[in-house]
Amino acid sequence: MAVTIMDVAKEANVSKSTVSLVMNNSDSVKLETRIRVLEAIRKLGYVPNMAARELTTKIKHILGLVFLTDNTTNKSYRFDAVTETLLYDTFNGISSGMKQTDFGLLSERFSALDANAELPSLLKNNRVDGVFIVGGLFGDEFIKRVQERNIPAVIVGRNYPGIDSVAPDVLDAMYKGTRHLLETGHRHIVFILGPETSPVAQKKLEGIRKALDEAGLPLRADTVKYCDYTGASGYKAMQVLWESGARMDAVFAANDGIAVGAMRYLYERKVRIPEDISIIGYEQSVLTEHSVPALTTIDINKERMGEEALRILLNRISRRKAKTVRLTLAPSLVVRDTVKKR
Amino acid sequence: MAVTIMDVAKEANVSKSTVSLVMNNSDSVKLETRIRVLEAIRKLGYVPNMAARELTTKIKHILGLVFLTDNTTNKSYRFDAVTETLLYDTFNGISSGMKQTDFGLLSERFSALDANAELPSLLKNNRVDGVFIVGGLFGDEFIKRVQERNIPAVIVGRNYPGIDSVAPDVLDAMYKGTRHLLETGHRHIVFILGPETSPVAQKKLEGIRKALDEAGLPLRADTVKYCDYTGASGYKAMQVLWESGARMDAVFAANDGIAVGAMRYLYERKVRIPEDISIIGYEQSVLTEHSVPALTTIDINKERMGEEALRILLNRISRRKAKTVRLTLAPSLVVRDTVKKR
DNA sequence: CTGAAAGCGCTTACAG
DNA sequence: CTGAAAGCGCTTACAG
After folding, report:
1. Is the CB of A198 under 7 A from strand D?
2. Nearest to B20 by CA among B44, B52, B43
3. What is the CATH topology of the domain spanning B62-168+301-329?
């Protein structure tokens, strides 16, 4: 039914070997022949059969994207759920980069948290040449299992020893945000961070402390609150902070969901943002720009992370034993309407 | 390197034909042999080579998802950009359904608006057994070109004659929203709709009119405003409406982005929501639940649309010439905090 | 510079 | 119930 290499060969009066050589840009084909073949290809609308090609070359021209979730049910649009903005932006970065290549992107959500979880079916069934692992929700054995498969992989959003990765510079992000609040005259900042047990919790504190140090201020334990990366959790944390009677002129939230939760609480308390209290988020997600008022936040360049991840993965595929890459991207401050100069 | 069907055959002391029969659940294999083969498969960790299988069966076990964008650059997180929430939820619906199958999902963004645009590379390169076309941003020739390819396709988010599709019941959605506002005592509703030229604009008006009729109210032209599906555009439209001095006690926005834009304008005008003016959105996106206050909206069941689309596409693949399916999903009202009883 | 041949790993009639 | 053989559509040494 579909036109094959044989059809092209006949049309151009050459053997299929020659057609193949032309397709693969071999320079050992006479220009004249080459043109004749190209013409036949165009005329017939020939598209090579991927499966046949893969069968001999072993390369599938497909990359996989595994998005790590905390569980199987999708709750992405609830106030008590982590909004999956990391996935979406990364995905965009990766796929826009892939336009330049002849690779396709196969994606799958996967929960790596059950200890007895196997591997994403992408990997189990050997469907990809390499894989992006998006998100930080994994344990050591998961990565070990992936590496045993011997498929090139890069982790996006978190660094991890022994495997290619690209992640934001968390320390710098927190430093920049805190410094911005200090520079705009705030002296009583409270911090609502992600889970205390998270691998990056310490780095966040370091960043905060660095900025505070420079301003000659201490980091007081009662100004730091931990919670989940959800609106509901941010709301709760803000409430506890508020009811503790702590003095505050600014809130620094460790992601945009938390920030929105805090804003909602303050809104209900009739606290005005930014007139009474300033607030700054972290991530630069759709929530950010569409909040009322628009949220000042830290951009961790998620799309860029995706692009870099693609570059790294493609390199890894062609040079399997190159040195492990561990890329850290600098964040930047996005000033909008929730921070007011004091 | 990888274990092949031959290895399994040797291990089980049968021919590769027999192994193949077992893999394909043929019932013409003696139970005893079958067990022996299965055991060998397990022991060797055999995974069939997709390319080889595809080469003979012609089926790729890959579905494609083409997301129609208005242009190539991704602006999804800007206030003046359409937030791509339709894509994300649909995507989730499709992929969660695919877990039960042995299909993979290849995705691609594509702008079908340039007249000279070709086809998504997914289709051009024949990489999929069928394709989801997500979004309504296409013209007649695009669909025609897709159909010429003779690849099963289903459109998600918009109905179109002659091709399988699943879409929300727009008329009913507008009807339900308007009726809700009427039932809660609003008598001066303004409507901010999407583009006037959109294929669904008429249906929207019909839905509104139906509810208004039932309440014995007229639909006044000066209460309807058209704009793009963006925050910035909704902001603008709200401003025009407001400055026209029109009396209003409620705003019905044709998507959540517009609603948020309108809210931001009202916020700046110090109008309180919902105390002074109620507002209701349309779509049920991440913006909805994370707005302050939480936005009452119409849920068009995007994830469900994805699931149905999968079902339809799989059916189409196995029964190429079945009757065209045109599915319309009933929307439902999601009551949150932006509508107040008058 | 070009062609004939082997081989990639499966499935599918067809014998027996 | 099971095996031998052909074939799917490519690529890649190898001759010439």
Report:
1. no
2. B52
3. Rossmann fold (3.40.50)
